[in-house]
Amino acid sequence: MNGISDLSRLLASLSPALSPKTYVFLTRPAAVYGDGGELEPIASFVEREGLTLIVPKDRADRAGESYAGEFGLLSLGVHSDLEAVGLTAAIASALSERGISANVVAGFYHDHLFVPVSRTGEAMTILRQLAESDQSK
């Protein structure tokens, strides 16, 4: 089940959606994959320094976890092919022009961007404008 790989079609079909939740990134140096399940992470990644977990902020706060930064989750509605070229670069470029950082996580069907929670509205506007400008081509 392949997604879209053509960059113009991808950009025209972004359909970004903002999650109502705020997320944080945690790290657990001595942890292994599967640890931290009680925090209900939406993503995890094993690095040589330890386990990174992306969890809802309210869960992290209740568990007394420490973190740096709070992020809004913008999910792209377009089903992008895992081998598509240029989507991440185009989005990162558009956001970076406005000084907005983005941490991108690719799922099988969709790409997800974590941006500073204070900039989510602006990031959504930029993504919508990016899609609209590509639709007019």
Automatic annotation (TrEMBL):
**What is the superkingdom listed in this entry's lineage?**
Bacteria
What are the CASTOR ACT domain coordinates in residue numbering?
A: 76-128
Q: Which residue range or ranges hold the DUF2241 domain?
A: 2-69
Q: Which PANTHER family match?
A: BLR5128 PROTEIN
Protein name according to UniProt: Aspartate kinase
